[in-house]
């Protein structure tokens, strides 16, 4: 009897210690069919590659990448805490998610830097979706382990938009041609070891750049894509790169296309500035289904990787342009989208609902994240107009004034 009591007491102490750590014993319930990581890996493979018997992805490729990154962070955290790469579904608790959130917000030199609050919230949303799918697949009643962590979006304090004057500087920017060295100077530099190393690095950079394009090519293309995104009401880079010839009607000056992210159709007018840029890329011999910009090759399997490489090359080129113009923010392809929204709202007083429609936002709350600065001049002007009208109304004599004279107010 005494041995059983001692055995029960030891088990109770072990369980209490595990609860203090926020998890149960890792040695229990570690079968492969109940492992959270194994379930998520299987579901991600199935949901990306299979839907309704065809090859269309059930979730976007970017969503799958975010979920896999979140899983890798959680796996590293579990290995660091318990020394194992197995996490049963029943051990995904609110305490564990709070510890994981603090782990992501703290810099780990050997693993990852300190992540921002929005990045951590994105990973938490991804894990929450995977947890819901795992519970439904295993017929487990979910315990809402993500209720104690932040899964929303915080408004970024750093500005991501240009002013109207800065945008005019970007429009007027002309790529500066490189100065050609004299022949004797070029030969003398080529004979030195420094010149050979520079030539080798230039060849390596041209070979590793997307499709072997030069830096000057990407700077011109990035500048044109940035301006087109601004002229087309904040059109995303993905929509621009997936634009096909039959979607551009230069005669009617109309752009009819489907958004790459949502599949919703939209129509935009082609202004003279945008038409001048499009005519540089649209040729008479182009096929109707051919891409307007020479970035994507049309292969479905490599489309996303080509888009990622092109976006990186464009952002590097835009960063150089912004540095030459001495802009106050780092220039990226997304800055054109934010800049159009802010200039349209604050400078030309376009209603938020119209801006939300142009940016394809389902809610105006999302649009307000793009409007990163409040225009207090408009607020003061509205206050002045209100007080002028109210002051005129109060200055007029009416039956209310007569009533106040006949029945003066009673002070209690």
Can you walk through the features of this model?
The chain folds into 2 domains: 17-138, no CATH class; 164-176 and 204-370, hpI Integrase, Chain A (Orthogonal Bundle). By secondary structure, it is mainly alpha-helical. It has helices spanning 2-20, 36-49, 61-82, 94-105, 117-138, 164-171, 183-191, 193-208, 215-231, 237-241, 272-278, 303-325, 333-346, 352-358, 364-370, 376-395, 399-406; strands at 248-249, 254-258, 265-269. The chain has a 3-stranded antiparallel sheet with strand order 1-2-3, with no helix packed on it. The longest helix is centred in the C-terminal third of the chain and has 23 residues, at 303-325. Helix 2 packs across helix 5, helix 3 (61-82) packs across helix 5 and helix 7 packs across helix 8 (193-208). The protein has 17 helices and 3 strands. Helices cover 56% and strands 3% of the residues. The protein is globular.
């Amino acid at each position: 009897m005494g041995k059983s009591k001692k055995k029960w007491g030891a088990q109770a102490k072990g369980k209490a210690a595990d609860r203090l750590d926020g998890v149960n014993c890792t040695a229990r319930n570690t079968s492969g069919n109940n492992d959270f990581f194994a379930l998520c890996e299987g579901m991600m493979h199935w949901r990306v590659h299979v839907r309704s018997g065809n090859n269309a992805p059930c979730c976007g490729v970017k969503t799958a990448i975010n979920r896999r990154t979140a899983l890798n962070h959680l796996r590293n955290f579990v290995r660091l805490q318990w020394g194992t790469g197995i996490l049963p579904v029943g051990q995904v608790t609110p305490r564990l998610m709070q510890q994981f959130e603090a782990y992501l917000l703290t810099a780990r030199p050997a693993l990852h830097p300190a992540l921002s609050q929005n990045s951590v919230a994105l990973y938490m949303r991804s894990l929450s979706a995977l947890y819901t799918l795992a519970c439904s697949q295993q017929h487990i009643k979910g315990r809402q382990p993500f209720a104690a962590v932040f899964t929303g979006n915080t408004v970024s304090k750093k500005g991501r938009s240009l002013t109207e004057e800065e945008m005019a500087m970007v429009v007027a920017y002309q790529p500066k041609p490189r100065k050609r060295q004299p022949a004797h100077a070029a030969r003398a530099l080529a004979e030195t070891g420094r010149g050979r190393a520079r030539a080798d690095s230039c060849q390596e950079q041209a070979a590793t750049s997307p499709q072997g394009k030069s830096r000057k090519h990407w700077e011109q293309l990035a500048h044109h894509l940035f301006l087109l995104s601004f002229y087309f009401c904040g059109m995303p880079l993905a929509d621009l790169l997936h634009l096909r010839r039959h979607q551009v009607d230069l005669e009617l000056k109309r752009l009819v296309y489907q958004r790459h992210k949502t599949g919703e159709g939209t129509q935009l007018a082609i202004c003279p500035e945008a038409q001048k840029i499009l005519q540089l890329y649209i040729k008479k011999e182009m096929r109707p289904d051919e891409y307007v910009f020479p970035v994507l090759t049309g292969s479905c399997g490599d489309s996303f990787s080509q888009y990622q490489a092109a976006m990186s090359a464009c952002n590097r080129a835009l960063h150089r342009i912004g540095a030459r113009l001495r802009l106050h923010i780092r220039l990226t392809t997304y800055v054109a989208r934010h800049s159009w929204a802010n200039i349209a709202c604050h400078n030309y007083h376009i209603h938020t609902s119209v801006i939300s429609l142009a940016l394809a936002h389902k809610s105006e709350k999302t649009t307000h994240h793009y409007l990163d600065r409040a225009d207090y001049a408009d607020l003061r002007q509205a206050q002045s107009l209100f007080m002028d009208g109210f002051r005129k109304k109060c200055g007029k004599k009416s039956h209310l004034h007569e009533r106040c004279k006949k029945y003066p107010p009673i002070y209690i």
